[in-house]
Amino acid sequence: MTVKKALITGITGQDGSYLAELLLEKGYEVHGIIRRASTFNTQRLDHLYQDPHSPRARLFLHYGDLTDGTRLASLLETVQPDEVYHLAAQSHVRVSFDEPEFTGNTTGLGTTRLLEAIRSTGLPCRYYQASSSEMFGATPPPQHENTPFHPRSPYGVAKVYAYWTTRNYREAYGLYAVNGILFNHESPRRGPTFVTRKIATAAARIKAGLQDHLYLGNLDARRDWGYAAEYVHAMWLMLQHDQPDDYVIATGTSCSVRDFADHCFTHVGLDYRDHIRFDERYLRPSEVDHLVGDASKARRILGWQPTIHAPELARLMVDAEMAALPRPVRPADSAPETALTLTAG
Length: 345
Ligand code: NAP
Ligand code: GDD
Known about the structure:
It is a single chain. This protein is of the alpha/beta class. It has a domain at about 5-190 and about 225-255 and about 290-305: NAD(P)-binding Rossmann-like Domain (Rossmann fold). Helices cover about 40% and strands about 15% of the residues. It is built from ten helices and 13 strands. It has helices at about 15-25, 70-80, 95-100, 100-120, 155-175, 195-205, 230-240, 255-265, 295-300, 310-325, and strands spanning about 5-10, 30-35, 60-65, 85, 125-130, 175-180, 185, 215, 220-225, 225, 245-250, 255, 275-280. It has a seven-stranded parallel β-sheet, sandwiched between helices. Strand 1 (about 5-10), helix 1 and strand 2 (about 30-35) form a beta-alpha-beta unit. It is globular, with a radius of gyration of 20 Å. The protein starts with a strand and ends in a 21-residue tail after the last helix. The structure holds NADP nicotinamide-adenine-dinucleotide phosphate (NAP) and guanosine-5'-diphosphate-alpha-D-mannose. NADP nicotinamide-adenine-dinucleotide phosphate (NAP) binds near residues 88 and 132.
């Protein structure tokens, strides 16, 4: 039986790690592109580690960067993937206001480089584009596949560019290319500067007496928050369908940042109002006030449906933070095992 090969950009990120896990479970050979960094950036993948010298190894990492189109093309030639999942991006909205040019270059033009590499190598692979609800921006909810875009950040603008580039390669060159328009999705693996992870970490640390306060910006913004592990399944389903198409992936419910904080702090027996302080540095020059996705097309055509909503998500994230808190060292504790760290190259 031929083993399917997938290439994932952004494999070291939250979604990349869940998707790699899912595809390995499904029997795929998984190749991931990672950036060279001066410190290890593969922590989210450590549990999937396989010695690349073993004949059973099915996870392989390669150095590459969205700013280097030549490298993307040579990797495609080498790996010959059946499916390409393009998840890499400068994904932080607030940071995109500080670094608009870099965000455009990676999140926007990086998509063109990858699609152009696929087109020029002539590979018959299927392509997934990580599009975002941030593209809807100021357009009121509920948002669905035909809702007009009105992005409110350099990140949102770059994602709109990437969305239309993906559609253009589908229409112009017949590429099997899809946009997954995913609403916010979180997990214990979420980057520590996104608001849900920031709140969950702080709730656990405050409960443990390790800190007193948490500084946040706008508490009134409302998001449709789902669970990342369920959302990567939707990505895979999109690439298994007969026809390439675009899909919204969301829970269909929303809550405010304040509500999410309430869920997290209540779970550990605290009142968020006693601990949250305001810091204007976390405000954005233009905000997205309210996102709620209508994922009925994905339910109808792909059979995808989420089971985890914000309250459960908050609890599972806080539980993970509590479990990860540093334990006081006791003489009887045995020495910790050395963490396996993936190396590439
Ligand atoms: P994430 O945790 O921030 O991961 C981003 C990934 O992109 C990381 O692996 C990062 O590598 C990589 N990357 C960044 N710049 C790169 C470059 N120049 N070259 C190569 N790789 C680069 O993001 P995520 O939450 O997993 O999201 C995955 C994708 O979905 C992103 O495109 C994001 O914009 C989009 N999205 C996310 C959500 C959400 O709620 N999570 C919703 C809609 C869309 P390092 O580890 O080295 O930094
Ligand atoms: N990060 C952060 N930090 N956000 C805060 C803070 C804070 O201290 N205080 C309030 N917020 C508010 C933001 O203003 C925003 O309205 C909301 O919390 C969510 O912020 P983030 O968690 O940073 O996520 P995001 O919605 O801006 O962007 C995420 O979701 C998009 C999909 O809609 C990212 O994952 C994007 O990559 C993704 O495309």
